[in-house]
Design a protein that fits this description.
By secondary structure, this protein is α/β, with parallel strands linked by helices. It has 13 helices and 11 strands. It is globular and about 60 Å long. Belongs to the class-II pyridoxal-phosphate-dependent aminotransferase family. Histidinol-phosphate aminotransferase subfamily.
Length: about 350
């Protein structure tokens, strides 16, 4: 066994709703801890899967996901050979680490951010260099990140909007930063929540692919498309880098149901726009509420809100006892709440206000 593996702690997924109900003796639970889509899945996906042809279940799926690949390439206006699919972005992150990292290499990540970047780097024996975000704004500290670059740096991770803070980094700022990064270092931009960004004509860093060969853009169908259960993610990067990744990609990694669901979901952009609009309204209400009760939060452009509160574990327990499961433990005194539907949000806000003795 690798010595690096012995020192690591495995990723602990969310407990199932039934497990939480049983553990806390609850008849109702609203899981708002995993940034899942509160508005479900496109009805067109449901219809397509109800009519799915299971007569070919004894055959392997399309190992190249050709139909889905063509749809994604057309929608994003990229070359098909620049796309690598994975079983969610978790698999993509593992591929990137496996291909581009060796023992002794270094990876730069903001702190806090998605934990899988760190875990997969450490699996490969790489050293993780963490750079704290600006505590006032939640923005990345690009200047400090640049000072941490050494001859051993291989990857810089950018989650945009960032998980768990929800803070969005303007593309212009990313471009200025990448111009100062040596071209032999990969800058990987995780846009899992990009569809939730509002107020911008173009939120994605996708145009940077035409300017930089050392940039990769990651996307998922788990969030805005509401297909977390189907595990479909992908990365777009230069054809040469994509070719390297394809050499380690497991054959037939996306089953036919997942490919079909993702393709139909991609076609239904009206559903995505509805989700974006509904989420934005509720997100604004959350930020107005947090400001009113005096809790520090970061301005979110995602489908979750991140804030700080004294004795956050007690508040999380209070919410859970009322049927609301939220994410705790990311930082001391912090909580992350997936933005739910209007009624659930109001109930949670009333519980928080009561906890803080800030009821109107």
């Amino acid at each position: 066994m690798k010595e690096t593996i012995k020192k690591l702690q495995s990723y602990i997924p969310e407990e199932t709703i039934n497990q939480v109900k049983k553990k806390y003796h609850l008849s109702y639970i609203n899981r708002l801890s995993a940034n899942e889509n509160s508005y479900g899945t496109s009805p067109k996906v449901v219809t397509a899967l109800q009519n799915f042809d299971f007569s070919k279940s004894n055959f392997y799926p399309d190992g190249y996901a050709q139909e889905l690949r063509t749809k994604v390439a057309n929608q994003m206006q990229v070359d098909e050979k620049n796309i690598v699919f994975g079983v969610g972005l978790d698999e993509i992150i593992s591929y990137l680490s496996r291909v581009f990292l060796e023992k002794g290499d270094e990876v730069i990540i903001p702190q806090p951010t998605f934990s899988e970047y760190k875990l997969n780097a450490e699996v490969e024996g790489a050293k993780v260099i963490s750079v704290s975000i600006d505590k006032l704004t939640g923005r990345y500290d690009y200047e400090t990140m640049l000072t941490k670059i050494t001859s051993r740096t291989k990857i810089i991770w950018i989650c945009n909007p960032n998980n768990p803070t929800g803070v969005y980094e303007p593309v212009a700022a990313l471009e200025r930063f990448i111009k100062q990064v040596p071209q032999n270092i990969l800058v990987l931009i995780d846009e899992a929540y990009i569809q939730f960004v509002t107020g911008l004509k173009e939120a994605s860093a996708l145009p940077l692919l035409k300017e930089f060969d050392n940039v990769g853009i990651m996307r998922t169908f788990s969030k805005a498309y509401g297909l977390a259960n189907f595990r479909v993610g992908f990365i777009v990067l230069s054809s040469k880098l994509a070719e390297y990744m394809q050499t380690v990609r497991l054959p037939y990694n996306l089953n036919s149901l997942s490919q079909k669901a993702a393709g139909v979901a991609l076609d239904d952009q009206a559903f995505v726009k509805q989700v974006q609009a509904k989420n934005a309204i509720e997100r604004d209400k959350w930020q107005t509420f947090l400001k009113r009760v005096g809790l520090k939060y970061y301005p979110s452009q995602a489908n979750f809100i991140y804030f700080y509160v004294d004795n956050s574990a007690a508040l999380a327990d209070k919410l859970l006892s009322n049927g609301f499961q939220v994410r705790r433990g990311l930082e001391p005194t912090s909580l992350r709440i997936t933005i739910g539907k209007a009624e659930a949000n109001v109930r949670m806000q009333n519980i928080i206000a009561q906890y803080l003795n800030k009821l109107d």
